Amino acid sequence: MKKKNLVCVSALCALMSFSFVSCDDDNEPSLNIPNVSVTNVSFTDENPEALKVSGTLNWTAPSSVDNVTKYVIYGSSDGTAKDMKIAEVEVGTHSYAITDVVNIGYLLVIAANAEGESSVYASVRVIDFVKDSSFMALYFLNSGNMGNNNSSLYMYDIEKDEVVPDYFLAQNGRGLGDTAQDMIVYGDKMYIAVYGESTIEVTDLKAKSIKQVKTEGQPRYMVSEGGKVYISYYNGYVARLDTASLEVEAKVKVGRNPEQLAVSSNKLFVSNSGGMDYSTEVGYDKTVSVVDLSTFTEIKKLDVVLNPTRIQADEQGNVYVVSMGNYADIPNTVQKINTETYEVTSLTNCPNATEMAYEDGKLFLFYAQWGMSSPAFLTFDTKSQSAGTSFITDGTSIQSPYSISAVGGNVYVAESDYKNNGDIYCFGGDGKLFKKFEAGLNPMKVVLAQKDNI
């Protein structure tokens, strides 16, 4: 296993220092606030989980510790802000074991005593270690506005801590086209469904185009399994793309205007919305198609609440569906499908949602129906089948949530007003805002790409 060793980045110089003399006991020697800094700070992240940090923090004591009684360790986003207090250790200690700390860019070590903390301190940059990985980036897929040919892909360089806008354009000398809808990472490639272009854009993990796959229908969403990428076409089909040949090798007819897909128990579950028939006598669809992956045939249609659009699978053999209803007397409804018995039940303890994402046994959902005074955010534990409170714990306000992604132990909520560039809020496992990114117009998806020796 390859490790990235980090050395002391900087000692931050103070502009002034303050002293305080205790008046409580004239016989007790007074302590001044320290004005010294540790040196030689180093840290090696040994945690293979993306964006989660574990390892030993080391430092050398100041030349004089006369006024120092302890060291305070903070996590910081920028190397100066004391964003997260991690620990206090006694003077004479020269190391500390960091365990499963989420979302920090720097570690600070500050000499201190009962009177306060030194304004001179040392920091070390934390470079996230991922097993077998020398490249890691977050990508933000921005849909743009339909018909305006302004989809885009932004890249957040984790190591440099910077967002690179229009990254696909910079890598390929052309844009994505009209209405990018979905994006997944599978193996050493990325797949982008561009609805308005009837194209699947296949790239390497640095967003360099490998092939544009023309599709017979307008692609909506994708899911991967067994060396294949399955794509919903809005004309009522699901296509199977082989990831070696990058050819569409088969397609199967499902319901009307299929949206998201999920794989469970060697079956593909497809949410059929019928969204294009909303104003006709036919109306919305209200089915989920079940496709056997071995034969690639539809074996069943399950009845659900009107207008199903979002679907996710857990590891316990369940699939979760969000039906949007009719935006009037039939509300948004969250349902669970048992993938063996095909029983469909509404989740009474998690009744309503607009969007959802899944990671590591939890659904992350928000409910933001048109006309609501404020959106609601919540979690649902798929193992205990219990609904939790909001996954946002620090009071961060998001008035117009647009999409949600869960990746690398973090939850990303995108906000959009449909006219200007949107923002993406990154929340750590503790539910606190770690970082806010500016994205493009109508951010649809956040994905994590990582690979060794690209």
UniProtKB/TrEMBL annotation:
Keyword Transcription: no
Highest taxon above the source species: Bacteria
Keyword vocabulary terms for this entry: Signal
Keyword presence, NAD: no
Signal peptide extent: 1-24
Name assigned to this protein: 40-residue YVTN family beta-propeller
Organism: Parabacteroides distasonis CL09T03C24
